């Protein structure tokens, strides 16, 4: 077990024309489970490969337990990596696959190796498969073998590169829990890369969000969910995504009036956390609100504490309905192909008809504002002090 530190890590490809990882600083505590998430090409795998020693950083350093391992060969790093495609030797038995790393990197006796492999196989529930070859196993079993092979090495650090992407949805959920259980039991510092924000949110003690090779935010999943540092993070984390609406802000003492940039509404934020936005400068902003923080009531009388919206689609998902709305009293998605979706997640008993005009209101503790130019979240001066978010 060990702490892991990435210091100003940078990786360029093609003579510098591609910057895969850009000045990444990250401290991971001993025993911590960190998930790294971001869109395709944001530098997740490259970061992991640098930690494993499979890719050399262009600049920056990697420390494990305070020791600089940047120039240490992959074979001599106490790091085990689990890949999406299992990477098992097809002609070796499961026993031989799992023992291979031990044979290469330790001077254990054959008996010791056998015992270690058996213990790890037992932990993964695959002890009956040790004499089989990978071809005889299902995808889920192969991934258990790959995990077992990582465990036998008793590494300082576990690295997971999208290990569950090849499995079906049900198996993925089971394996997520297995990996969490394993990590908790063994207490091994882990970095888990995925492009699936739900996986990242549910599995990690801490989540790291990358975009274009740059660190966007890191923190406990719920903290990041409630306090995204910019519009990218706000939109990436959470499903369905946060709604964004262009607004013109007109602050007043104790609140702010938000006027829809397209003229479709005026809405006053006056309570809870949002009232602190009264301190901001007037001008253009992006309003952000998650679907579950939108309240919908039937009726077409608008005030400054509701916004009229026209129902485009009603999507039942069992316990809730997702309402796809056009702000304003007219449905626009028929004339504008790219009319932005505004989604409200409401209890299943709220079932308006398509074309109905409803009134929406926001949970004002959960309203976000972002700078139009930079996407940075606007932090009202005393926002935390007003009402901490639940
Ligand atoms: P994905 O989720 O699609 O696997 P990722 O976030 O893991 O993406 P990386 O594989 O780390 O992203 O790639 C980051 C960037 O670096 C991409 O633009 C990619 O094309 C580029 N890149 C990665 N490896 C190489 C390489 N060996 N040569 C050139 N460019 C590379």
TrEMBL record:
<dbReference type="Pfam" id="PF00005">
    <property type="entry name" value="ABC_tran"/>
</dbReference>
<dbReference type="InterPro" id="IPR017871">
    <property type="entry name" value="ABC_transporter-like_CS"/>
</dbReference>
<keyword id="KW-0472">Membrane</keyword>
<keyword id="KW-0813">Transport</keyword>
<keyword id="KW-0067">ATP-binding</keyword>
<feature type="domain" description="ABC transporter">
    <location>
        <begin position="4"/>
        <end position="237"/>
    </location>
</feature>
<dbReference type="GO" id="GO:0005524">
    <property type="term" value="F:ATP binding"/>
</dbReference>
<dbReference type="GO" id="GO:0016887">
    <property type="term" value="F:ATP hydrolysis activity"/>
</dbReference>
<protein>
    <recommendedName>
        <fullName>ABC-type D-xylose/L-arabinose transporter</fullName>
        <ecNumber>7.5.2.13</ecNumber>
    </recommendedName>
</protein>
<dbReference type="GO" id="GO:0140359">
    <property type="term" value="F:ABC-type transporter activity"/>
</dbReference>
<keyword id="KW-1278">Translocase</keyword>
<comment type="function">
    <text>Part of the ABC transporter complex XacGHIJK involved in the uptake of xylose and arabinose. Responsible for energy coupling to the transport system.</text>
</comment>
<dbReference type="InterPro" id="IPR027417">
    <property type="entry name" value="P-loop_NTPase"/>
</dbReference>
<dbReference type="InterPro" id="IPR015855">
    <property type="entry name" value="ABC_transpr_MalK-like"/>
</dbReference>
<keyword id="KW-0547">Nucleotide-binding</keyword>
<dbReference type="InterPro" id="IPR012340">
    <property type="entry name" value="NA-bd_OB-fold"/>
</dbReference>
<keyword id="KW-1003">Cell membrane</keyword>
<dbReference type="InterPro" id="IPR003593">
    <property type="entry name" value="AAA+_ATPase"/>
</dbReference>
<dbReference type="InterPro" id="IPR008995">
    <property type="entry name" value="Mo/tungstate-bd_C_term_dom"/>
</dbReference>
<dbReference type="InterPro" id="IPR013611">
    <property type="entry name" value="Transp-assoc_OB_typ2"/>
</dbReference>
<comment type="subunit">
    <text>The complex is composed of two ATP-binding proteins (XacJ and XacK), two transmembrane proteins (XacH and XacI) and a solute-binding protein (XacG).</text>
</comment>
<dbReference type="Pfam" id="PF08402">
    <property type="entry name" value="TOBE_2"/>
</dbReference>
<dbReference type="GO" id="GO:0008643">
    <property type="term" value="P:carbohydrate transport"/>
</dbReference>
<comment type="similarity">
    <text>Belongs to the ABC transporter superfamily. Carbohydrate uptake transporter-1 (CUT1) (TC 3.A.1.1) family.</text>
</comment>
<dbReference type="InterPro" id="IPR047641">
    <property type="entry name" value="ABC_transpr_MalK/UgpC-like"/>
</dbReference>
<dbReference type="InterPro" id="IPR003439">
    <property type="entry name" value="ABC_transporter-like_ATP-bd"/>
</dbReference>
<dbReference type="GO" id="GO:0055052">
    <property type="term" value="C:ATP-binding cassette (ABC) transporter complex, substrate-binding subunit-containing"/>
</dbReference>
């Amino acid at each position: 077990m060990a702490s892991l530190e990435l210091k100003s890590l940078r990786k360029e490809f093609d003579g510098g024309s591609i910057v895969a990882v850009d000045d990444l600083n990250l401290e991971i505590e001993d025993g911590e489970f960190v998930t790294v998430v971001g869109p395709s090409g944001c530098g997740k795998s490259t970061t992991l490969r640098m930690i494993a020693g499979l890719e050399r950083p262009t600049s920056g350093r990697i420390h494990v337990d305070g020791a600089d391992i940047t120039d240490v060969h992959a074979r001599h790093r106490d790091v085990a990596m689990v890949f999406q495609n299992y990477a098992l030797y097809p002609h070796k038995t499961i026993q031989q696959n799992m023992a291979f790393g031990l044979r290469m990197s330790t001077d254990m006796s054959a008996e010791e190796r056998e015992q270690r492999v058996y213990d790890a196989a037992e932990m993964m529930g695959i002890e009956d498969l040790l004499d089989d070859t990978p071809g005889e196993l299902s995808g889920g079993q192969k991934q258990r073998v790959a995990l077992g092979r990582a465990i036998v090495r008793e590494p300082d650090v576990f690295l997971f590169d999208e290990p569950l992407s090849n499995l079906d949805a049900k198996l993925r959920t089971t394996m997520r829990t297995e990996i969490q259980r394993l990590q908790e039991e063994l207490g091994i510092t882990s970095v888990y890369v995925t492009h699936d924000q739900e996986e990242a949110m549910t599995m990690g003690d801490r989540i790291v969000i990358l975009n274009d090779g740059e660190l966007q935010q890191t923190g406990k999943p719920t903290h990041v969910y409630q306090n995204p540092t910019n519009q990218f993070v706000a939109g990436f984390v959470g499903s369905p995504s946060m709604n964004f609406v262009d607004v013109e802000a007109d602050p007043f003492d104790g609140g702010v009036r938000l006027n829809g940039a397209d003229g479709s509404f005026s809405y006053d934020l006056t309570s809870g956390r949002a009232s602190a936005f009264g301190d901001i400068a007037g001008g253009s902003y992006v309003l952000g609100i998650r679907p579950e923080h939108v309240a919908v009531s039937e009726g077409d009388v608008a005030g400054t504490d509701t916004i009229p919206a026209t129902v485009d689609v009603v999507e039942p998902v069992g316990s809730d309905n997702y309402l796809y709305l056009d702000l304003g009293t007219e449905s626009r998605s028929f004339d504008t192909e790219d009319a932005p979706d505004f989604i409200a997640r409401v209890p299943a008993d709220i079932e308006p008809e398509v074309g109905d005009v409803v009134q929406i209101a926001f949970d004002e503790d959960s309203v976000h504002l972002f700078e139009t130019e930079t996407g940075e979240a606007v932090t009202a001066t005393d926002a935390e002090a007003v009402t901490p978010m639940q």
